[in-house]
Amino acid sequence: MTKVKILGAGSIGNHLSNAARAKGWDITLCDIDPAALERTRNDIYPSRYGKFDDAINLCLNDEAPKGGFDYIFIGTPPDSHIKLALEAVKEKPKAILVEKPMATPDLKGCQELYKACEKEGIKCFVGYDHAVAHSTDKFADLAKNLKDIKTLDVFFREHWQGIFNAHPWLNGPADTYLGYWQRGGGALGEHSHAVHLWLYIASVVGAGRVKEVTASLEYIQDGEAEFDRLALLNVKTESGLIGSIVQDVVTKPTQKSMRLQGVDKALEWQCVPSPYQDIVRQIGEQSSEEIFEKKRPDDFITELNHIENILENGSSSPISIEMGLDAMMVIAAAHLSSQEGQKVLIDYTKGYVPEALSLAGSKNTTAKAA
Q: Are residues 167 and 276 in the same domain?
């Protein structure tokens, strides 16, 4: 039986536990806080899935077994991801899944983790589940045949009250990493599905990686909390494809959408909150629409099926560590661009480090965001 250790008993940890149990896997769910484990047993899991699954082994991190796991999933706050992932590498699982965003905007430890996984031959994935949805597969297939692409735009605009509804023990952003952009919170970190989807579709159409980022972020000071509630990015790839990425934590109703514009035809993708479903549209002389019905747990089951398939067939993955770290480079570049009021260039030859970012027209690479 496949054995999985999940670190973090919050919302994502419960989602991943339920998805893994749906596949019949053996689960050990860990947290540093006994109260989090109690919430899982008595509140979160039963309220979402009907009742707690007693086959899930709950334990504190310090009491969790070491080694012998096929997979290790990390569903903790972003500022703990790299440290826990490096520790997970030492246990030599077949694969590690890290929740998004993969790290903090200072990029601390990103290159170290990349090299560690490479050295040990461990597949590492990042939890951008929208990128492996059946609807996104369809969009990507259609995108490959779209001619003379003009632009790509992705919006993830969603008020974060839904997050706090799923975490009723939190009073607001200041109680969690969400209220601190330096910890990987704020709109740019929390809703970075948009950044990631932009990068993925750009790669699908052969546009290369993002090399230029110009961004404007609205930072909010709320007591001790400091976060970006709106992030507007203009990006350009190595081949010259341009487009926009917009993420915020204030929009109601939610807008999660993607549009790829060709010479005489466009593709649109939309994630609709109610009823929960994805929609893919072809817009042109002959327009069409395909609806992908699903429930929230399906997102995570599909993600785990994807990981399992990748390990079996060895193919590339849109949620690979490389794609997750490329997203971190764009996030870091966007913070730097907004704070310095300049375009930021990304030089991937230098690795996943702050020194890979530079202000356009400047030889200095001092990154305020780092």
A: yes
